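Researcher: Go.
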Amino acid sequence: NWYRDCDQRIMQTGISDLRTVESQRQAGGKEAWIETNKIPLRDEDGNSIGVLVTIEDITDRKVAEQALIESEIRFRSIVENANDTIIMLTIQGEISYASPHWLDMFGYTSQEALHYHFTRFIHPDDLPRCTRVFHQIATGAVDALVLEYRAIHRDGSCRWHTTNLSSIRDQAGQVQHCVAIIRDITDRRQAEEILHRKEQFLRSIYHGLEQPIFVVNVSEQAFHYVDWNRAAEKVSGIAAEQITGKTPEQIYGAEIGQLEQQRLLKCYTTGLPHSYEERQMFNGEITWWLTTLN
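Model: Structure:
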């Protein structure tokens, strides 16, 4: 009845019904999609005499469209729920998409970020390097790069970010867009800075002591010197750079080197401090030294 009423309406009004899409349940329960066009037919006097109907099976197209929609939903879910911020940029450097985490990182909503040039959010001191890297990606010179830089928050504060920047190309291989995956590494950089200051402080003590100190690396019960402080350089007359990676035998010769090797091995195997006295020639005089290995 519905089809008959539709045909009658078309004949009465003379208005075509185009691109009507509907699903049909086929034998076996399989769903099919068809697209129907209905056009009124008239005789030479202009009287309606029927309806021309064309039917096209568009099931494959609908399946492809549905798959595309589901893929977009999955992609958007991944992007919008990722801990990192993901943005898309034009090859000119303007932001065309920003995931919701942009607000947390920069203090702007995703919509506020649109059409801004990325340089707006980069610290001036890091801008030349970031611009140079973006140019390499946007021109297709390289496909992907990683860089660390300081970003400017809306409140004026600076945050450290690391970004994976890559390009999206068309079938002809031309760069159409750039994608940036941004992660806030401020806490890590601050921790590294604190550790660096501690290392500098301990190194100042290490080199400031009057007592010689040396560091030995153990690998498969083979001992190699890593470093010694300035006091040890003064006593031995050997610069720290000259002992790095060398064994006791290479520094002191076979006889003394083997004795030193035995002392180091005893400390290493027992896990206990080992102290011993030794005689050294210093400034032309014989001196006695108490050495403790830990």
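Model: The radius of gyration is 38 Å.
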